[in-house]
């Protein structure tokens, strides 16, 4: 049960990232969240939307896992998509901003641990 709740929270986080990157990229809220200037946001709008779509795919995979059942048949799906989230977070922390490790990787790792523990 805890594992399913954590998987759902990671999915919700990635749906929010999708919204920020695809639809609100040039807004003050998104610029604050990602530490960008108005000029940078305007110049990278298409790239951010593409990145947001990938975050949406991660959320979709996690939702698929929840619908299949966590714990249960959806466990392998949850672990796969959580691993993808964690790896993307590590890469983002190394290449973009260290805070991504705390926002993305640690929640995914905690969810993976809970799913593996069956709690």
Describe the structure.
Helix content is 87%, strand content 0%. It contains six helices and no strands. It has one domain (2-117). The radius of gyration is 15 Å and the shape is elongated. It is an all-alpha fold.
Number of domains: 1
Query: Helix/strand/pairing class, anyone?
Result: mainly alpha
Cα radius of gyration in angstroms: 15 Å
Count of individual beta strands: 0
Mean pLDDT: 96
Q: Let me know the largest β-sheet.
A: none
Ends apart, CA distance between termini: 6 Å
**What is the beta-strand fraction?**
under 5%
DSSP helix count? 6
Oligomer type: single chain
The topology string of helices and strands comes to: HHHHHH
List the helices and strands and how they pair.
Elements lengths: L1 H21 L5 H7 L3 H6 L1 H29 L1 H21 L3 H19 L2
Helix pairs in contact: 1-4, 1-6, 4-5, 5-6
Task: List its salient traits.
119 residues, mainly alpha, 6 helices
Short account of what is shown:
The protein is 87% helix and 0% strand.
